[in-house]
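Lab notebook, bench 4. Continuing the backlog of folding jobs that were queued last week. Each job is logged with the same field layout so the records can be merged later without manual cleanup. Today's entry covers Hint domain-containing protein, a 306-residue chain. Filled in by technician R.K.

JOB TYPE: sequence-to-structure
TARGET: Hint domain-containing protein
LENGTH: 306
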Amino acid sequence: MPTTYTDQFYTFDPANPPSGGTSVSFVSYNLTDQNDDGDVDAFDNDSVNGSDVSSSYPGDTVTINVPGTGNVTYTGTTFYLANGDRVFTPTDGQVLANGTFVSSTWVSGQGPLDVGDLGPPCFAAGTLIETERGMTPIQDIEVGDLVRTLDNGLQPVKWSGKRTVAALDKRAPIRFAKGAIGNTRELLVSPQHKILVSGWRAELFFGEDEVLVAATHLVNADTIHRAPRRHINYHHLMFDRHEILLAEGIPTESFYPGEYILQDSDLHDEVMDLFPEMIGQAGPDWETARTVLRSKEAQVLCGDNL
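JOB STATUS: finished
OUTPUT FIELD FOLLOWS
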């Protein structure tokens, strides 16, 4: 059965880009995984924006000069479509922004886009979150409840969400065994959920005391691994800003709309009703609470310790 996702795209080919200084704006397109095998590629009639994928190139990069921010480099996948369009979508957890084109790089090898790279940051049902009234199952936390945050004390929940998703292969949740990273109980999170990691490696290699690392990049051969199942109930908590919460006793991120909000039209509409200031912009309040590491950076950080 087909599964459709929504994501951000630049509408040019990094291998044949516009001239430097050209204005660039992102758009939202649907991606359809026709046979629901967990990837989008040139096989099985997968499509983007209604047109079949002819080829796909993971690993291309696009650098954009974003007003007020400077140059931002995105890593992602470029799709060649049957209708002649060429489109690029990020797979590095960043949010595309409007700006002017600076440069690009491209790869020659084809490959699929793993839909796991489109995943939301969220907790599995049953996860205990530290709140004003103590450790509370996430499914029992409601809008207005006070949740303890690492940076800003008790903060009220502004929005909570729930969704049930297939949880096989690359979309399987990441299981942290009790004590794997100091957690008091087993912890299940989505693959792209960010965990706060600290230590000398963070300071040495990245100049930061603390950084955020996607759970999928922490998988090891022992205490942290994928835990596939047919379905899983995921819950989200959102605040006035990106926060660091305590889940099963360890610091981890709250819902960050910049990474996922464009992937679900119903979710987009609901969140925009509550946060109209987010329309058309990320804004300073939606910067991540800490620097987010990419896959190769996470490998440098973790070394053989996880």
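OBSERVATION: Residues 265-274 form the longest helix (10 residues).
SIGNED: R.K.
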